[in-house]
Amino acid sequence: MNVLEMKQLTKKFGEFIAVDHISMSIKEGEIFGFLGANGAGKSTTINMIASLLRITKGEILVLGKSISQNAKFARSNIGIVPQEIAIYEDMTAYENVHFFAGLYGLRGSELKERTVEALEFVGLGDKHSGYPRNFSGGMKRRLNIACAIAHRPKLLIMDEPTVGIDPHSRNYILDSVRKLNGMGCTVIYTSHYMEEVEEICTRIAIIDHGKIIAEGTKKELEAIVTNQKNIWIEVRSAEQLNISKLQEVAGVNKVEIEDRILKFSSDAEVNNLNRIIQLLMADHIEIRSVEEREPNLETVFLTLTGRSLRD
Ligand SMILES: Nc1ncnc2c1ncn2[C@@H]1O[C@H](COP(=O)(O)OP(=O)(O)OP(=O)(O)O)[C@@H](O)[C@H]1O
């Protein structure tokens, strides 16, 4: 069953097309990764699913029902963890979750029980009367997640939930996502951290300039770049490097420098390593190591969009 379906979903801001005819479905039980660089259109898409932004064109169905005609039904079945933490600093942790779960439609004793349950779930069971202003960034994030899950949504949408938090809370959040998924919750997960997406997502879509440019399991996406090889060359210092000369080498599609590592994406069948090394030596660049890397989501992303996710 499709928990979420987007049909030709489009959003224009004036003449600018932020989301461009996206058609995609997310099935029950998936942890669906939504990858895109800054400004690719992820938040705009999510905000339309959450009914926070009006759809310019197209349709969104939640559990088979169009959200424009069934707003209340959609709201009660979706939980959103927004990119910016959205909690009230002057309300206790308990009051925050109680408030948001109420907005999602819970009432009475059910509302109270689920509030307690959600706080317990995110590891804030002993912080009911604590104020978020005294919480760490990670605790605020977890509280924000409790606010989104207390009504037990069928679909949880998390927009970069691990940005800027400590490793302990980050691991806690990733574990919570898996646990929620195990309890039957379908998850859409957007992140800038490729490793996280690789680790937890069952299927992934890559969005660029408002369009879905690839979609599939990690394995399926990696198969797109099997005609590519990735060579990493570690050098002592990249200061003197003439990158444009390296980009001219036959077969080389892209060169990136990260710290002191030169990352080459190149046609697999072109034997150009000798030429690359010659050029580095001619510029007196000291090579520390050379390594051929297996394709991963990072290289898929780079090959398809021409830039790295964290540009
Ligand atoms: N209210 C708005 N008015 C005009 N342009 C907008 C508006 N909201 C977003 N945009 C533009 O739409 C494009 C997509 O933005 P969006 O926030 O969806 O990207 P994103 O993929 O979520 O990126 P990020 O990771 O930075 O949040 C961007 O070019 C952005 O500048």
TrEMBL record:
Pfam families: ABC_tran. The keyword Nucleus does not apply. Residues 4-234 form the ABC transporter domain. The keyword Cell membrane does not apply. Signal peptide: none annotated. Keywords: ATP-binding, Nucleotide-binding. Gene3D superfamilies: P-loop containing nucleotide triphosphate hydrolases. GO terms for molecular function: ATP binding; ATP hydrolysis activity. This is Export ABC transporter ATP-binding protein. It comes from Paenibacillus contaminans.
